[in-house]
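dude i think i finally got it to work??
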Amino acid sequence: ELEEAVYLQTRIHQKLGDIDEAITLLKKHTSDESSRSPLFYALLSSLYQAKGEHYTAMTVMETAVSIYPDNHQLLFEYGLVLEKNGKPDKALRIMQRVLELQPDNAEALNYIGYTWADQNVHLAKALEYILRANALKPDNGFIIDSLGWVYYRLGDLQQAATQLERSLQLIPNDPHVYHHLGDVYRSLKNFPQAIKAYKKALELFQDEEQKTTIKQKIHALENQ
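look at this
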């Protein structure tokens, strides 16, 4: 009952905007061997991420996985934090460890498969991983996006377009899917549809670097 009570207290502090109070509560319990829990470390890390303190979030997860080295959920969260801290190679190794502990972890399969597809390496293995993830969670729009992206990397443009269009039916406001679809349409020489997809991505992206990339692609197509 302690774990549930602390979780609920944390959520109440968050709802009230008292993130520092929630952090204090969780630090109290994670510092006590008799009351600490994997959940508390994950919550504490997420609070630091919400404050933009990504390095602190990473150190919290490093401590957590040293205490609970076989907790696949903590390892998965640790991998995501590593990626946010610019450590993609270490994040990939951690996700591979997740799969050693839980071979049917759809999110880890998808993470690794998408990362390989994005890096344009190990594409056959990437497709295998993403297909496994898709079989486990057939209605997950993010996994279907990954499937479309790996097909794009493999040169199967029609299949890529089909999967990405299907992904948008499930996650219609994800800018990354529109960006991917724009790249696919551009490769298919369907420039009007590519521009339309890019403009939707531009509308949805918050990150300025991403916006700049999209603007450059739109400009290049409009001036062909």
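The CA atoms of residues 157 and 184 lie 6 Å apart.
im so relieved honestly
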